[in-house]
User: Which sequence fits this backbone?
């Protein structure tokens, strides 16, 4: 398969996109490529991109199939399937994993699939997540929400494989509930220690967050960073004026979390929340200790939201070169946290759509980010990639 490739070199400076000039920069966009296009639309697709142990790259395109590249993203092969999964991962033994809904079953039942032949054939099993609630079968979760979401796997050095999925009670949106353990779109981590035969050992990633992506410290697998979507109403005693969202949900943001116990517990990082509607993102931690967060640009007012159009978005990247301790920022005083760091534009506003934008590493400082697009902001027709690199010769940003 030959994919359409457009070569374009840009210098990206402090959330602005400029043609090549004398500007100093940290990020250069090299070009874009259309992986797949369907004129009638590809539907609600939350893509995921993962590197296989054999060096190939896979994109989960949900209902549109699985895409594989064996040449670092230059060309792609489509592998059709009968699933519509919003959960995807690859374990160290090379197996592919998916999580999908089971609409014909109880709302708390999900489907888990695994493939040992690159997605050609799949073994599947049902998993009822209801009893994973603290009250077990006597007070179970009633809703599992892998569909339309962003469910990601990661694996510890001892072989424990895990993923998180949104699990809710019926009264999940009663934020004034006297029992404050019940409201929330909570992301729950589910584990297997026997290669996927059985799943359990649930722990809560965050009570009010879901669509979580994980990045494991390459030198210490007990340390895990996560980028997630927090979305909730006001809790008792909170003031709407103190939130960062001036319209819609009081909280609908991206947020950075950290675990130091292998993903068993997570804590919010100071300054780790994005602007409103900056909630769809992905995270990558490379072997040279660079942390990459690629996400949709948020907005601060209803007028700004309306200007974007129905699905319009810009894809931005925020970068840490020291494992998330500091972030590249034009203002050194704002470099200590994600929320104050520079947002480099990879895809300009309205040239991308508001879905996930996962990233894989191509070389030490070169990356490929997957995003969705279309002829306008109403119809999503294309799966595309943008390749870009970090210009380490640049100066002026914090290290």
Assistant:
């Amino acid at each position: 398969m030959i994919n359409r490739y457009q070569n374009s070199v840009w210098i990206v400076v402090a959330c602005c996109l400029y043609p090549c000039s004398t500007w100093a920069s940290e990020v250069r966009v090299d070009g874009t490529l259309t992986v797949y296009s369907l004129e009638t639309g590809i539907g609600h697709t939350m893509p995921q991109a993962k590197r296989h142990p054999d060096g190939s790259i896979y994109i989960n395109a949900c209902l549109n199939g699985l895409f594989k590249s064996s040449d670092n993203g230059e060309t792609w092969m489509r592998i059709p399937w009968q699933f519509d999964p919003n959960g995807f991962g690859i374990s160290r033994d090379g197996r592919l994993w998916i999580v999908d809904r089971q609409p014909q079953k109880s709302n708390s039942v999900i489907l888990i699939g695994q493939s040992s032949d690159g997605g050609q054939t799949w073994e599947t099993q049902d998993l009822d997540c209801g009893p994973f609630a603290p009250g077990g079968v006597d007070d179970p979760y009633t809703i599992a929400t892998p569909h339309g979401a962003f469910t990601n796997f990661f694996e510890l050095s001892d072989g424990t494989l895990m993923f998180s999925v949104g699990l809710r009670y019926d009264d999940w949106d009663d934020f004034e509930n006297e029992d404050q353990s019940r409201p929330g779109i909570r992301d729950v981590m589910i584990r297997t220690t026997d290669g996927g035969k059985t799943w359990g050992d649930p722990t809560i990633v965050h009570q009010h967050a879901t669509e979580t992506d994980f990045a494991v410290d390459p030198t210490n697998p007990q340390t895990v960073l996560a980028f997630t979507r927090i979305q909730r109403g006001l809790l008792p005693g909170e003031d709407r004026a103190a939130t960062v969202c001036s319209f819609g949900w009081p909280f609908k943001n991206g947020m950075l979390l950290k675990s130091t116990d292998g993903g068993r517990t997570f804590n919010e990082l100071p300054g780790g929340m994005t602007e409103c509607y900056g909630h769809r993102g992905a995270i990558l931690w490379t072997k040279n200790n660079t942390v990459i967060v690629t996400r949709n640009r948020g907005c601060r007012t209803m007028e700004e939201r309306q200007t974007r159009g129905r699905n319009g978005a810009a894809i931005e990247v925020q970068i840490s070169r020291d494992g998330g301790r500091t972030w590249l920022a034009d203002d050194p005083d704002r470099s200590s946290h994600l929320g104050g760091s520079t947002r480099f534009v990879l895809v300009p506003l309205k040239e991308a759509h508001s879905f996930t934008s996962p990233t894989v590493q191509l070389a030490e400082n070169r990356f490929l980010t997957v995003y969705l697009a279309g002829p306008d902001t109403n119809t999503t027709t294309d799966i595309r990639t943008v390749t870009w690199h970090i210009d380490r010769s640049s100066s002026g940003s914090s290290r």
